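Obj: model holo form, ligand = 3-methyl-2-oxobutanoic acid.
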Amino acid sequence: MSNASTFLDMKRRGEKIVVVTAYDAPTARLEVEAGVDIILVGDSVGVNILGYAHEREVTLADMAHHIAAVRRGAPHVYIIGDLPYATYDTPEQATQSSRILREAGANCVKFEGARPEIVRALTVAGFDVCCHLGLESQHHDVKRRQGKTALAAARLYDDALALDAAGQKFLVLELVPQELAARVTRAIKAPTIGIGAGAETDGQVLVINDLAGITEREFKHNRRYGAVGAALREAVASYARDVRAGLFPAEEHVFHMADDERAAFESLRP
Ligand code: KIV
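Output (holo structure tokens):
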């Protein structure tokens, strides 16, 4: 199994790190077969799978449930799991919450915001920590680009350095200008994983529902690599058509009784 130094070495060699989200066992298995380096079980599970309106509704129990499912589908992949909203307010609470995600199968815990004291506490407690700056879905009500002004960029840059000094193992940069992500990537030791942060981060992450074409909405930062939503809808519509027309099940899907058992049954219950 890979560990944090595997990815540090990849950064040093200039090899891109491929990260994608998963929330269930079969998807995780397919992603490993496809060759991903890291699976992120993000709190995006809330809006993408659980039908919640906001990431803030995701609980620690939700995260543990989905991390455990992903771990069953992908026993050997490096998994980053999100600490949900309000589960890392203090170093003690963050440590307690991270234990639950580790027991569920996470190798690394991720949280949003510039909180070096949380990184330090978790690192001392033996956790790999992934930080997350830029758009913070748990804390920003409107999903818009961050770090656009010189001042905002300088603040994010300083936060990234502080988190690095505290011992972060990865930094997710979400919806920030490429110029800023490139500067941060060069300045810090930890690999940066970008989403909507341009092409110069050490790795990229996308939400599986977006890349596979399950999500209806189009996002500027995303590229659809499949039409899984349309394929699923068409498969179910075909099934419904066949059931209604009496075409499913067909003879090849049917089990029959042996002739003697059938005859005996008919005489038992004429
Ligand atoms: O929850 C998530 O999927 C994330 C990504 C958007 C990076 O944090």
